Amino acid sequence: MLLEGKKGADVVMKVGEETFYAHKIVLAMRSPVFDAELYGPMAMWDKEKQCIQIVDMQPAVFRALLHFIYTDSLPAMDDLLDSHDKREMIRHLLVAADRYAMDRLKLMCEAIL
User: Fold this and answer.
1) Where is each BTB domain found (predicted)?
2) pTM of the complete model
């Protein structure tokens, strides 16, 4: 419920044309990369806008990454048309897991692939 609602969200993330609301502390606790981006000495976000622009990632992949961060599980992928689409999503999610240093998610994606 924390992920689905905006209550208490203190960071906004733009991924393509979509906007996601999240909680900095949750992101930082689950990913050392988010920790450095949000709380490190060279924080890569605008402190007045509290917005992060995520580039080189599809919104659906980022949504799945956020789902994992908040729930420690992969999202249901019933909306994907076939097994090829699911494998493609898992491949993109593996890249995202590597980018944000999320080892458990990487292992889960590798096991599926």
Assistant:
1) 9-78
2) 0.86
